[in-house]
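Students often ask why inverse folding is considered easier than folding. One informal answer: many sequences map to the same fold, so there is more than one right answer. In these notes we will look at a single instance of the problem. The structure comes first.
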């Protein structure tokens, strides 16, 4: 896929009223959690920081979804992305790759299963919405949902550890075919209260020919709500689109949490 040049940094202040920004800021954990990673903010234990500005409703979750106008480029929105499931993600992790840490094998299996079922952060505890976009052979799946805070913290910490626990492993499909999976950390814009980015590659065969599935994976927490993104395909992953979705998607969710309705024009929420 042809990479588009990086987009300018999004500035939220021009679109949101000062009062709404202050409300949102009061619920932020900040970006100096001391994790040592530029891409992950550790979870604050402050009770105030754990409160979401407003309970996410079904209508609010739908309004917080990104649109074709947000992504630009040649992305086309699909009618039903809930049916997307990539067979290259189906496989049983070879426990022999984890001679000293059997728990790591379970975490790697959980990753493959979560990517296939579109439950990266587990089952939502409240409202949720999902949409998807296609560009050539690539797909971008975008979700907004409300979660139990403790479970959401656990999921983000689990994602943070995957590049170490699951840096490379083997999975076997139902016919005995071997797939090599690699997981690395990827950079995300510093949006929301906590975030984690991954790059996942799966090398295997499709139709008898060698193939590689490449996915950008992103999760961003905003209060007790979160956005999740999987973006990529057999032609690679466009990281610029992932970062744009993180920037504008976080902005849209904050507007919803403050009781507003995001504009259909991305320029108005920059």
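Output (designed amino acids):
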């Amino acid at each position: 896929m042809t990479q588009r040049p990086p987009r300018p940094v999004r500035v939220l202040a021009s679109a949101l009223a000062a009062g709404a920004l202050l409300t949102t800021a009061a619920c932020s954990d900040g970006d100096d959690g001391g994790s040592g990673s530029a891409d992950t903010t550790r979870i604050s234990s402050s009770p105030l920081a754990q409160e979401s500005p407003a309970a996410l409703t079904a209508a609010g979750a739908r309004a917080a979804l990104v649109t074709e106008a947000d992504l630009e480029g040649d992305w086309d929105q699909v009618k039903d992305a809930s049916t997307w499931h990539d067979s290259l993600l189906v496989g049983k992790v070879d426990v022999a790759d984890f001679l000293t840490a059997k728990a790591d094998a379970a975490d790697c299996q959980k990753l493959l299963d979560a990517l296939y079922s579109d439950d990266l952060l587990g089952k939502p505890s409240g409202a949720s919405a999902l949409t998807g976009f296609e560009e050539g052979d690539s797909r971008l799946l975008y979700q907004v949902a409300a979660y139990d805070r403790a479970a959401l913290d656990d999921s983000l910490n689990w994602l943070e550890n995957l590049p170490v626990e699951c840096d490379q492993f083997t999975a076997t499909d139902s016919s005995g075919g071997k797939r090599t999976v690699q997981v690395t950390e990827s950079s995300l814009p510093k949006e929301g209260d906590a975030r984690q980015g991954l790059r996942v590659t799966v090398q295997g065969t499709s139709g008898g020919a060698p193939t590689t599935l490449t996915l950008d994976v992103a999760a961003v927490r905003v209060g007790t709500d979160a956005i999740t993104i999987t973006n990529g395909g057999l032609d690679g992953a466009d990281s610029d689109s992932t970062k744009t979705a993180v920037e504008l998607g976080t902005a849209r969710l904050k507007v919803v949490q403050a009781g507003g309705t995001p504009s259909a024009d991305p320029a108005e929420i920059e």
